[in-house]
Amino acid sequence: MPDSLPVLTLGGGCFWCTEAVFVRVRGVVDVESGYSNGQTQRPSYEQVCSGSTGHNEVVRLTYDSARVSVRQLLEIFFAIHDPTTLNRQGNDIGTQYRSAIYYSTPEQKLEAELLIAELEQMAVFHGPIVTEVLPLANYWPAEDYHQDYFEQHPNQGYCAFVVAPKVDKLRKTFTALLQ
User: Fold this and answer.
1) Residue 135 — φ and ψ, nearest 5°?
2) Beta 132-135 vs 99-103: how paired, if at all?
3) Spatial contact of 74 and 114, defined as CB atoms under 8 Å apart
4) What is the rounded distance in angstroms from the CA atom of residue 72 to the CA atom of residue 36?
């Protein structure tokens, strides 16, 4: 995989959900579940879940900008999670589930800010968008057993009832962007 491909890191609740969606998107060449924007070096899942590290569960997307734009990735991101709930997605509660866009380039930051402003102006959501837009900091890959979790455990309860509907929404809403 070329080092020259851009990377965008997104926090949209449980990384199993977000990863399962973005692995299906045309132009996304790698999706890695991880932790970012906290204080601890090499945090474990248990540490992140305790809320003591400040880390967020995220997916790190490496993508081919000739095949999928930052705007398209962010439109999917805002469609598959609730960006109006602070530190929560459904029954997943805690700072590790906060809505976040961690950018790697000034262009990604600008695109995120523009899209959030548009969504707010159009009143797409029932409340204000609380998604934080910050530079990526202190990223660490999640443990191996978190990678490709939905692909390996599609019938597990959380996957069947929480992850699968997000994947279905992607399929129905963003058909043109599927691999």
Assistant:
1) -65, 145
2) parallel
3) no
4) 22
Look up residue 130 and give its two tokens.
């609380």
Residues counted in the chain: 179
Cα separation of 178 and 76, whole Å?
11
Give the pTM.
Answer: 0.94
With CA atoms as reference, report the closest residue to 117 among 83, 140, 157, 69: 83
Q: How far apart are the first and last CA of the chain?
A: 18
Q: Are 54 and 38 in contact (CB under 8 A)?
A: yes
The reply to whether 14 belongs to the active site is: yes
Plot region of 58 (φ>0 → left; ψ -120 to 50 → alpha; else → beta): beta
Q: pLDDT tens per residue, the chain (179 residues)?
A: 556 999 999 999 999 999 999 999 999 999 999 999 999 999 999 999 999 999 999 999 999 999 999 999 999 999 999 999 999 998 899 999 999 999 999 999 999 999 999 999 999 999 999 999 999 999 999 999 999 999 999 999 999 999 999 999 999 999 999 99
CA distance 68 to 179: 11
